[in-house]
């Protein structure tokens, strides 16, 4: 069950990242983040009311609040790092945040088997390679590296926190709702500050009309991200966090394959090799 839900997490995160990447080509990244999370809050709020999730209220939700505050910082750092580039270095480096939940699992006493240790090593190498790392070309700015590491640490921290935010299905709905409320609060404040400084928060071409026309895509991004957090939480609760975290971090492979299928982008040799290694690592982890 752990492998199944963790792989579902990778699929959902990979597709959400791909969709978000397309949208940010015409809508400011911060607006995409906030608008997609607002939609998620509305949907999750309805689910919490329908399932009676309010009864699960407790101190464990502080983990969800923390995840909700860290998430926007990580996402915006990642987008800023991508803007500074080169993307071929930033994108795969962002996946090293998997070290956070894996480290938490080891500290808590998890001890994967020898085959699983091998699977973790192979999968992590595959994840980085699937992002298409560049070994030549323009040097990477120090600011880009710093922001990428901030984003990676943030993504890994969110994974570790959300796994601790609930222990039941209805509690998970409530935890995800609280996380998204915190996301919107932090992101909305950042959006307000950005607007006050005179920066663009709406598309130059189309303005608010362009945002409204993108609601279906925004809804997909927001709900896919929510679902990914949910499936990861379930995976981490029903098996070793060290395994769940690595399998859930295969999303760069999904994003690369989506770009290949939809945008007809050709996979570089290093990306194809990385996808293959990630698959081998997945088999070792699932079989261990």
TrEMBL record:
GO cellular component: membrane
Keywords (A to Z) from UniProt: Membrane, Transmembrane, Transmembrane helix
Domain of life: Bacteria
InterPro entries: EamA_dom, EmrE-like
Annotated SUPFAM superfamilies: Multidrug resistance efflux transporter EmrE
Occurrences of domain EamA (ranges): 3-129, 144-285
Presence of the UniProt keyword Transmembrane helix in the record: yes
Pfam family, one: EamA
Transmembrane region(s): 26-49, 61-79, 114-132, 144-163, 169-194, 215-235, 241-262, 269-287
Family: Belongs to the EamA transporter family.
Protein name from the UniProt record: Uncharacterized membrane protein
Source species taxonomy: Bacteria, Bacillati, Actinomycetota, Actinomycetes, Kitasatosporales
